[in-house]
């Protein structure tokens, strides 16, 4: 193993650890932010890195929004940071977060675990089909983009500008995600009027 290869491997390992930490924290803090802003009372919060994060609310008038905020903010916040910083490591973390949140929703559908966000979303009124479509798009797109970043991070030459790569991203992927989320919001959210 060459010295340069060892350095890249160490950077990759540290970045992967950060990616997991950012993903779990951004996801759970998305739930917390939405729950508190929506008027719920936070009664339990677990954020220790060696445990799976968890938050519980009582009196949450919008549990559906609180539940969706985890995977949505858990994906969009890291992507927003990557857009600002434009470094391969931040793109690695951002695409990992999108992939992980998509897989989490998808595996929740397949496993049927009652305490997973996916099944809580279904009980709160989300469409199983919309959840499956959003999860598949996020998983596929996150995997595709993460693979590209891994290739760039493994090269010995400097990385290209990632902002240009993001601008070339097919708009239909973002449009599909936006449509799925908007469709679910309009169909299932029960916002008080007046």
Commentary on this structure:
It is built from seven helices and two strands. The protein is mainly alpha-helical. Helices cover 72% and strands 6% of the residues. Mean pLDDT is 82; it is low at 169-176 and 182-194. A hairpin with a 7-residue loop joins β1 and β2 (54-58). It has one domain. Strands 1-2 form a two-stranded antiparallel sheet. It is globular, with a radius of gyration of 18 Å. α1 (3-37) packs antiparallel against α2 (63-85) and α5 runs antiparallel to α7.
Described by the principal axes of the CA atoms, the overall outline is: globular
Strand content: 5-15%
Oligomer: single chain
Helicity level, as a percent range? over 70%
Q: Number of helix segments? A: 7
Indicate the structural class.
mainly alpha
- What is the N-to-C order of secondary-structure elements (H for helix, E for strand)? HEEHHHHHH
In angstroms, what is the radius of gyration?
18 Å
Name the poorly predicted regions: 169-176, 182-194
Average pLDDT taken over every residue: 82
- Report how far apart the termini are: 67 Å
Number of domains: 1
Major beta-sheet overview: 2 strands, antiparallel
Short note summarizing the structure:
By secondary structure, the protein is mainly alpha-helical. The protein has helices spanning 3-37, 63-85, 88-111, 117-123, 128-154, 162-167, 171-188; strands spanning 41-46, 54-58. It has one domain.
């Amino acid at each position: 193993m060459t010295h340069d290869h060892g350095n890249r491997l160490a950077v990759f390992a540290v970045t992967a650890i950060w990616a997991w930490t950012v993903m779990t924290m951004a996801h759970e803090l998305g739930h917390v932010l939405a729950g508190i802003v929506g008027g719920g009372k936070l009664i339990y919060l677990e954020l220790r890195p060696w445990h799976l994060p968890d938050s519980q609310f009582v009196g949450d008038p919008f549990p559906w929004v609180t539940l969706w905020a985890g995977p949505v903010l858990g994906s969009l916040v890291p992507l927003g940071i990557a857009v600002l910083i434009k470094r391969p490591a931040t793109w690695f973390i951002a695409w990992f977060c999108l992939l992980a949140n998509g897989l989490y929703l998808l595996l929740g559908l397949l496993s049927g675990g009652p305490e997973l966000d996916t099944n809580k979303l279904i009980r709160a009124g989300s469409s199983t089909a919309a959840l499956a479509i959003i999860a598949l798009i996020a998983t596929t797109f996150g995997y595709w983009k993460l693979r590209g970043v891994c290739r760039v991070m493994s090269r010995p030459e400097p990385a290209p500008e990632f902002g240009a790569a993001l601008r070339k991203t097919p708009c239909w992927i973002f449009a599909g995600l936006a449509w799925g989320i908007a469709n679910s919001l309009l169909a299932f959210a029960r916002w008080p009027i007046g």
